Automatic annotation (TrEMBL):
Identification of the protein by name: GNAT domain-containing protein
Origin species: Mycena rosella (Pink bonnet)
InterPro entries: Acyl_CoA_acyltransferase (IPR016181), GNAT_dom (IPR000182)
GO terms, molecular function: acyltransferase activity, transferring groups other than amino-acyl groups
Span of domain N-acetyltransferase: 93-222
Length: 231
């Protein structure tokens, strides 16, 4: 029917990365990923790049549970849509957790790749941010003017092999464009995070704006944020 495959045991959908990463799949986010997500995000080499939420001393179980409850509810809605329709457009993406499938068939959580309507986290004025988000959320499913945002992290054990470049390509080209009707796809990354900016550039994004000393990370100097859009 589409690029999704379905787990024979659970019936859950997943997207598989192309060669040479066919042992890596993107699945819905299960609550059982609380523990492994905490372990990855508490690694300073990952957490520091995830914005104010990820930069604290500890990404706690309570934060992880809240986050997973929220994103699971979002993907559950899309999964219901996928089960009752074959073509779309669908309201979002039913998968986001990146897993490595081992030779014995077990799998391990190695990262997160969200593809959701933008909530304009870079806009500092609360009223303007709320206005933009409300306007975007009011757009009908499939509306080409919906502004989408991709965001991600990968376990240090799996970085530097091309995995996230392939994962972003897969989720955009195999699902976002054909089944969500996504046209306007944005992301952001801190200046000084060349890996993230390169993942996006290798997927057709360009830097559209650089917000100098914009994000308060609780340090002496605010951090500069690059905004990117897929062209
Ligand atoms: C950013 C991140 C997702 C990249 O994932 P990845 O799978 O390691 O990236 P890839 O292997 O696909 O690399 C893509 C390109 O970036 C380059 N790159 C990756 N990490 C780099 C680094 N630290 N410095 C410079 N270049 C880097 C790679 O060499 C590759 O370029 P090439 O193909 O020309 O060699 C991963 O490093 C990560 O999770 N970092 C911490 C969290 C984070 O930064 N999230 C994004 C927040 S905006």
């Amino acid at each position: 029917m589409n690029a999704l495959e379905f787990n024979a045991a659970t019936g859950e959908p997943f997207l598989r990365l192309p060669a040479p990463f066919t042992n890596i799949i993107i699945t819905p986010p299960p609550m059982s990923d609380v523990e492994p997500s905490i372990a990855i995000l508490n690694n300073p080499a990952v957490g520091i790049w995830m914005g104010p939420m990820g930069a604290g001393p500890a990404y706690t179980a309570s934060k992880a549970e809240q986050w997973l409850t929220k994103v699971k509810a979002e993907t559950d809605i899309v999964m219901q849509e996928v089960r009752s329709a074959t073509s779309g457009p669908f309201s979002g993406c039913p998968v986001r957790h990146i897993r490595e499938v081992r030779e014995d068939g077990t799998d391990v959580f190695i990262g997160d790749l969200g593809f959701a309507r933008s909530s304009w986290t870079e806009v500092l004025d609360a009223d303007e941010k709320a206005r933009l988000a409300a306007e975007n959320n009011a757009r009908a499913v499939g509306d080409p003017d919906i502004v989408w945002h991709v965001g991600y992290y990968l376990a240090p054990s799996h970085q530097g092999r091309g995995v996230m470049t392939a994962a972003v390509k897969t989720i955009i080209t195999q699902w976002g464009i054909p089944y969500m009707g996504a046209k306007c796809i944005r992301s952001s990354a801190f200046e000084g995070n060349p890996g993230s900016i390169k993942v996006l550039e290798k997927n057709g994004f360009v830097i559209t704006d650089t917000l100098v000393e914009h994000v308060d990370m609780g340090k002496a100097k605010k951090w500069t944020l690059c905004l990117l859009e897929r062209v």
